[in-house]
Each structure stands twice: as C-alpha cells, then as structure tokens.
Amino acid sequence: MIDLKDLTIKKAHEALITGGYSCVELAQAYLDNIKEKDGNVHAYLEVFADIIKQAKEADRRIREKDNVTLMTGIPMAVKDNILIKGRIASSASKSLENYHATYDATVIKKLKEAGAVFLGRTNMDEFAMGGSTENSAFGVTHNPHDLERVAGGTSGGSAAAVAGDMALVALGSDTGGSIRQPSSFCGVIGFKPSYGIVSRYGLMAAASSFDQIGAIGKNIDDIQIIFDFIKGVDLLDSTSRENKQINTKNSKIKIGIPKGFVTGDGIDKDVLKNFTESVEKLKKLNYEVMEINLTNLRYSLATYYTLIFAEEASNLARYDGMRYGLHVDGDNSIDDYFKTKATGFGPEVKRRIILGTYILSSGYYDAYYNKANIVRDLIREDYQKAFEKVDIIITPTTPGPAFKIGEKITDPLQLYLEDIFTVPANLAGLPALSIPSGFKEVDGKKLPLGLQLFANNGKEETIFALVKDFENK
Amino acid sequence: MEIKEIEKLAKLARIDLTEIEKQTYLKEIGAILNYVDQIKEVVAKTGEERKVGDLHNVMRGDEIKKQSGENTEILVNEFPDKKGNYLKVKKIL
To answer: Which of A49, A209, A349, B14 is deepest in the core (most CB within 10 A)?
Structure first.
C-alpha cells in the first residue's frame, strides 16, 4: 500500500526511479482513492479514461531513461478551465459541456514534456466566477473536512482533490483568490505566482489583467517544483515575462501586517486568534514583524469587482455558440446569440456580464472603469512603498473557515466580501501563497484556517524561504 | 436602477433574460453597484499617464508559422453546424 497521505513529489520520484513502485501502481492508488471518496466530494468533473496508459508511458520513460524529470509519473489534477488538447474543457459551464480543446495550454505542454500523469479535470465555479464552486453547472464540490461545507472556489475541485489525496498536486487558476481561498478552506497550500510569470495561453480567460495559473499541494517543495516547471516567458502570451528578480535577501526577512486591516469587523474571532498565534510563532523565529500602511487597501474589493466585471463581460463575449460550444437556435442569426447565452450561462455569469456591460457603457465608463484603474494604480503604489520596508506581508487568507453549502449563495454581495484578503494580490500583480495555519472546531469538525503571505512582484523565492522556515518549526 | 436599464444591458450583451431573472438581477445589481460606488470617494487626478507595471506592447513580424491546414480538422470538428470545411450560420439580413 502506497502511503499517499505523507507522499511528496520527491518521495514519489525516488520510489519510481528505484523501483519501489511503478507509475501504474501510483496512478492506481490515486484511482482507488478517487473511487472511494469522490462520490461524496465531487472534486472531479471527469476522471480521464486513459490514466493507466499515461502511467505506462511514464514507466517506459523511466525504464529507458528517456528524459526523466521530477514530474515523470506524478499524478496531478487540472482545473477544468485549462486546455488539454483533445480533452473536454468546459469551465464548469453548460456552454462548453462538450467542447474539446483544440490545443494544449503552455503549462500543459510543459508538464506533458516532463511526463506528468493527468488524472482528470476538476470542478470549479462556472468560468471562474464565484467563491465556493457552488456556481458550477455540474454540482458543488464538498469540503473533504466537512462534506456539508464548501470546498471554496473557484478552484474548489483542485483543492479538494489534493486535500482528499485524490491527486498529489493540482493546477488551479487565481483571479481574486481562487487558488488561495479553497486551499485555505481545504487545509492545503495554494500558490498564485506574480502576474506574468506563468503563461496564460490555454487558460480560459476570466479577467485578463488578474488571472494567473498556480499550484495546489500539501508541502512547499511540491509547490516550488510545479512552479519551476510551469513558469517562463511565452511568446503566445504577450503579458508573460521573464522573472528578472535575481537574488533573495541574505539578511533576515522582515514581515509586515497591513495597519487596521486585520481587525474585528466581519472577521471570525477564531481566525483573528489563529492569526495572532501565527504572528507570535514568527516572532519566536526571530522575524521582525511591523505594521505597514496601505492607504487605499480598503477600496480594493470595490476596485477589484468593478474591473473584473468589465474584463469578464468582455472575455465572455466569445461564447456565442458560433464556432464551438453550445448552440441554441433562435428565430434569426442574432437571436441565436440571445438564446445560446441564455441557455449556456448560469446566474452568476449572467449577473457579471450585465454588471460589466453597465460599467463599460458610455456614460458610466469614466466613473467606474477608468476610476477603478486609477485606484488600482494607487493600490499598486501603496504596496511598492510598503515593500521598501518589509519583504513579506501577511494576513489571514479568509475572514472565516469554510461556510456551509447554500449559506452564502443567495446573497452575491456576501460572497464577494469573502475575498477581502486575497484580491489585493491580483490587483497589484503580487505573488501570494496560503499555508494551513490551524483549525477552528465547529460541531465536532475541524475546519482548516490559512495564513496568507504576499511578496513583491517577482519575489516568490522569498515566500518559499519563509514558508520552509515556518513549516519546519 | 430600473427594469428598463437591465433590459437594455441584456440587449447589449445579447442575453435573453426571463422576467424573474430581470427582477432578481435588478435587486442584486443595485446592491452590488452601491458597494462598488465607494471608489468615487478616492480623490485622484484623471487623465494622468497610467503605469501598467512591466506590461508593454509585444510585437512580432507578420509571418505565418503554421502549415496550411494543420489545425483545420480539429477546429472544424467543433463547429455546431458545418458544410464540408465551412462553418454554416444563418443568413444575416
């Protein structure tokens, strides 16, 4: 029996190349777990039929020493909005329910070359709009720690798969916290790179100036390994760039907490208590922790939502049923669009398209869209100034632990407010990571809590260094 | 905000909404717009040149890099309606 609970990429790799077990056996172990648990969790929208075939090929590569990498044979899950050529990619939407990807995302191409085994596509909020995976057109994903609660979103399936040992690692996407929040809810590590460091080619766009593909895993080494494989400038993504930051600090990392931001209003008291404990732990490790001033931070949610509604509405115009995807016949050519979209899109998607259209319509464009961009720049500048004083900024990842399924879905604004700690990273393009920091006990169930770390643009190595230190103690 | 506004936006976005949807969205969207209105509080000069971080225009030569027909089959397979390799759509009057 392969111990999946404490498995890491390096341990698996060692076993695979020394003959401890084969890639097929490892893949089968995950398949067995999926069979046992996913009926209740529903992390996967599709478990690929050719997993053993993929694993056999990985075994061949190892046997013949044919381009063997750390990722060869490693079973991983992929969020349903990342394209794998020839496979269905639906973004958990009826509008793409039977759409087959016509090309590989760059991150997939890289992982294929490395020999990774793709277990399946994971559930998410439709078109990456939401915060709980309740907006999936194909059913919600349940939190493995408490099946009555959400796994979080929008990468709920990916986080639940890793938390439930149904994948060793997973890819997710993060527009305003969509990797970090579900990772926090599910008790695993979720990482969003600096904007531009990982190619978005082949990631179905939600909000183009916010989206990033990132990694979900159970330990920091695995996160770093995935990041190293998927990062890099890509000519097919003109917003991607080489990471020009060279060396990490040699002197001790300084940590900042945004002044007035982690306070009692609207934040669970156990989250605050847990955060204080994390701060104490960091101080005991001799890290200097200070308050920093981020003047415009309180506008981040309003700025974020204004901009993403506009970008998302624009990006979803392409799903008109003309060239691919669901097509519903109307009375005439233009009526085809009206009917196709009415049928294909869920309520949150429609809501955001209406909002985005409003924000971009003449008469409102200046007051909303242009203004929000200006505020976004101010927030970016606030962070630049703060990073002159500190290297890492910490907050809780979420204002509370995983909420119950159905609890927040009827009030969209309530759900938006859950993003308060995570959106600044996407506004400012900063790398950010959530690590499990403890639990809140509710009704006999231990609900995971998370600590979030931000670093300056391009400084993900600083985050990795701090987490390694924090994790070991 | 009024229902007429929602209807106008739905028309712009080319989405059919049911009467119930219109009512629901009217209420929800009103509340959300109220919330994002906060950004009006921020005092900042408009019209200044905006920085976008490291982003800049990326250009390449206007050259075809793929073989002709390389992707045709896989793309045509996704067409909702086709005739040969042609995408079939309703006529546009």
So the answer is: A349
CB neighbour list of residue B19: distance below 8 Å, 6 or more residues apart? none
Coil vs helix vs strand at A159: helix
Specify the CATH number for A1-276+393-473; select among 3.90.1300.10, 2.60.40.3080, 3.30.530.20, 3.40.630.30: 3.90.1300.10
Q: Does residue B52 lie within any of the structural domains?
A: no
Rounded to two decimals, the ipTM of the complex is 0.92
**Helix A51-63 vs helix A9-18: angle between axes, to the nearest 10 degrees?**
60
pLDDT of A179-201, one tens digit each?
Answer: 999 999 999 999 999 999 999 99
Q: Are A207 and A181 in contact (CB under 8 A)?
A: no
Domain boundaries, chain A: 1-276+393-473
Q: Which of residues 31-90 of B touch A (CB under 8 A)?
A: 31-33, 35-42, 44, 46, 48, 50-51, 53-55, 57-58, 60, 71, 74-75, 77-81, 87, 89-90
pTM of the prediction? 0.96
Suggest the residue from A197, A295, A358 to mutate for an interface test with chain B (most B CBs closer than 10 A).
A358
Q: Return the residue of A nearest to B57 by Cα.
A: A238
* Mean pLDDT, rounded, for A127-145: 98
Domain span at B31:
3-41
